[in-house]
Amino acid sequence: MNAATYNRYGPPEVVAITQVSTPTPKPNEVLVKIHATTVNSGDARMRRADFGSPFFTFIGRLVFGIRKPRKQILGTTLAGEIESIGTDVTEFKVGDRVFASAGMRFGAHAECIAISQDATILPLPANLSYEQAASIPFGGFAALHFLRTLVTIEPNQRVLINGAAGGVGSSAVELAKHDGAHVTAVCSSNHFELVKSLGADKIIDYNNEDFTKNPQKYDHIFDTVGKLSFFKSKRALNPNGRFLAADMNGVILLQMIWTKLVGNKKLISGVALDKPEHLQALKDLVESGALIPTIDRTYPFDQIQQAHTYVDTGHKSGSVAITMAE
């Protein structure tokens, strides 16, 4: 089968379409013929071996490959059709349309992938295209983790989301609004219409306004893109407010430990894991109309290198989808 592989860390040019062996599903696995996937910021960071601080870079290289990547096929999200099943599979049948998250196992930038029936895989949400379904998990998992697992949003609380047009930010705006918050979205002016359509109550152009200098206070500030300073942002938090940092690094970790010991305003961070129950929650939100996947651009599979280049600009909105050749 065709797969987008990379055998060294680096710029988008390290990614190339190559021939690899089609996986054979184990007894408890299904083989999914992938119709759509995405290139997200996590894929780009893995490709660059960009793990943040020197400490996290050391850990990341130990886990994923010191000199070159151990897993040479990126891609964490996918949607497609089950092509074959293992002998012990009871939850799915050949021909089922599904969407899934491969998580840290990666492998979705390929024509096929083998996934356990007990992994993070579900029937395709009603009335969604493959591209839309593949765009749900990455940003959706992070939004759920930070806005429902790490904190609880009470009705009418004020939530500010920085990077509101991105893959995580767009899902966070919709989820926070659905859970009853008054949502302030921070993004560039060319994304105002998008975040307004997602439900934002107020929009701030970060190029023209510094929200930390305004009198308005927030119960939660969610930095989805790792651009804010906690010590500067905390002046905009209510006395028991929470600063949520999606971009974990050494500085964030130290600040998080410090705020556990000192003061009422806390910095919280963590890693959003892919879990079947979280994918089910996202599917329920999508089917209820509370969550609508946002797709910025769509590239054919043979242009996946160009998709990486676009993601590297840091200016995408929502997801960058990849369609596989039929």
Could you name the key traits of this structure?
single chain, 326 residues, alpha/beta, Quinone Oxidoreductase, Chain A, domain 1, six-stranded parallel β-sheet, 10 helices
List the SSEs and their pairings.
Layout: E1 2-5, E2 16-19, E3 29-38, H1 41-48, H2 54-64, E4 77-85, E5 97-101, E6 112-116, E7 121-123, H3 130-134, H4 137-149, E8 158-162, H5 167-178, E9 182-187, H6 192-198, E10 202-205, E11 218-223, H7 230-233, E12 237-245, H8 250-261, E13 266-269, H9 276-288, E14 295-300, H10 304-312, E15 319-323
Helix pairs in contact: 4-5
Report on this structure.
- The protein is an alpha/beta fold.
- It has two domains: 2-136 and 295-323, Medium-chain alcohol dehydrogenases, catalytic domain (Quinone Oxidoreductase, Chain A, domain 1); 138-269, 3-Layer(aba) Sandwich (Rossmann fold), CATH 3.40.50.720.
- The protein has helices spanning 41-48, 54-64, 130-134, 137-149, 167-178, 192-198, 230-233, 250-261, 276-288, 304-312, and strands at 2-5, 16-19, 29-38, 77-85, 97-101, 112-116, 121-123, 158-162, 182-187, 202-205, 218-223, 237-245, 266-269, 295-300, 319-323.
- The radius of gyration is 20 Å and the shape is globular.
- It starts with a strand and ends with a strand.
- The model has no long low-confidence stretch (mean pLDDT 95).
